[in-house]
Structure of Glycosyltransferase family 2 protein:
Amino acid sequence: MTPQVRPLVSVIVPNYNYARTLDLCLSALERQTYPHIEVIVVDDRSTDDSVEIAHRHGVRVVVTDTNIGAPAARNLGVEHARGEVLFFLDSDLALAEDVVEYAVELLTSDPTLGVVCGTYDPEPLIPDSLVERYRSLQLHYWISGDEGEITTIYSALFAMRAEVFREVGPLNPALRHSENAEYGHRVTQRYRIVLDNRIRGRHDHDDRLGVVLSKFFHRARLHIPLYLRRPDFNGGPTNSSRGWGSLAALFAVLTAPLPVLLGPAWLVAPVALLAGSIAADLGMYRFVRRYAGIWFTLYFTAVHFLVNVTVAVAVFAGAAQCLLSSRFRHTYDIPAYPTSAEV
């Protein structure tokens, strides 16, 4: 492809029980400024009316034989795609109108660029709770701050040339929670990955604290084998102070009983560790204060403290699992491929 060519873009939308947002997602695609788009919704055996909504928008619908997970659903969408550019978009995300245009411009102007990723707007697609607002601002700040060359992919919102996908191979369906890390590792052996904040959309984030903490735990734990293999990876130990912030939060909890056991002077330990945890991501707290005000920032800080503790526990759990399980150490060596049927 050359910058002069206007290639067909296949937008692949994996979906499982997201009827609530699918209509907004597909409506946003209909408003794209780029004219050469085909949309393929891969429905992963939804039990709601997702398929009916997709048909109502006149898009191509592929339904899996069984529930196979988002990575496998993306691979299946590629099997049915005709485009020279593949744009992967989660069904709980509504793009800004010029996003596909920007993605094509980037991919067709630089042959060394394998994948272009995007970010989330600071406001959620459907605001439901304070937890969701926390998650929206936290992800917006973290992801947008990585603008430029990265080593992972953000699987909810990324595009690549079809020829690159064929060369690198499909996403690993065995990695339902961490396929983005493994795929980014594979892509960067041959191509560059760039995060561009012009590639953006509103996302319907999780609105329950338990779900948010569970996702942080599982993703952090599952990333440990890759971080040990490649310390320079995005979010890995060599390029982020946030890991130290999480450790400081955990040790603030562990040292909290010291003033009771050893005397008031020991209060300095948990207080200093808490301050260190906040200082590790001070720019984020300042952003939230400017954007949402002091009262929400206090709420945000409390939730993020729980997140930091959860991540630190997950790191130790992942490290222990690496020591005890050869299979876990080789998590990112597993290749796989699935199937299904079009309706």
Notes: The chain has a mean pLDDT of 91.
